[in-house]
């Protein structure tokens, strides 16, 4: 029997209904279904675990929501080698692959191995003794109330330049269509392996993104007298003081997304961005 983790959209009633039904079906079949405290309290019929214990022994993680819920699922797995089934309960997402009416069949196929895996690169950041992993991006940005922050950038141990800006985004190919896209960064195919640095509202003539190799090591140092904050996949986690450095590099872990057919990432991109043929 399998151990299955469920991650739920925080406000979607339809996702909750499907989670309740799915949990009842899976437990009747003898599987163990677990969730962290907030999700477990909402569903009411599964095992509650601490966030730090969520990945332990999981055979499958099911994300019931949209891309934000998928990011939360990746964060809860904390680099564990667990496959993720994304079920779309919102707008068209980049990361979720099945519709709600396909849920039970998709879970059955996932548990018996009747699927493929699409691996997505993660980016890792080390700062002040803390290590963080992100599917989309790690962002160093000005602290609330400040106008800009000056961030010095070194690549593979060689200083590149410093950016007076609202912030800098270090993103994966998956994250190239998230915050980096809104900051005029390039679109990188999601199964590619690369790191990109995109400035946010830089106060300088050079405002282009840099697309680097997957094994590049990026040091971002807070210069001047203003502090900064670090956000990981949209969650602010760390404050950096002047002189502090965060080192970003390719994570040794990947996000392992369950797919059932060859995924047409270009079609998803066209639909999401409203691109039409002329």
SSE order and pairing:
Blueprint: E1 3-8, H1 13-28, E2 32-36, H2 37-43, E3 47-49, E4 60-65, H3 67-77, E5 83-88, H4 103-112, E6 116-127, E7 130-134, E8 137-142, E9 149-155, E10 158-165, E11 167-171, H5 179-182, E12 195-200, E13 210-212, E14 218-223, E15 228-232, E16 235-240, E17 245-259, H6 265-273
Parallel strand pairs: 1-2, 1-4, 2-3, 4-5, 5-17
Antiparallel strand pairs: 6-7, 6-17, 8-11, 8-15, 9-10, 9-14, 11-12, 12-13, 14-17, 15-16
Describe this structure in words.
The chain is globular and about 60 Å long. The strands form two sheets. Strands 1, 2, 3, 4, 5, 6, 7, 9, 10, 14 and 17 form an eleven-stranded mixed beta sheet that branches. The protein is α/β, with parallel strands linked by helices. Strand 15 and strand 16 form a beta hairpin. Helix content is 21%, strand content 40%. The chain folds into two domains: 127 residues, Rossmann fold (3-Layer(aba) Sandwich); 131 residues, Probable inorganic polyphosphate/atp-NAD kinase, domain 2 (Tumour Suppressor Smad4, Sandwich), CATH 2.60.200. The termini are far apart.
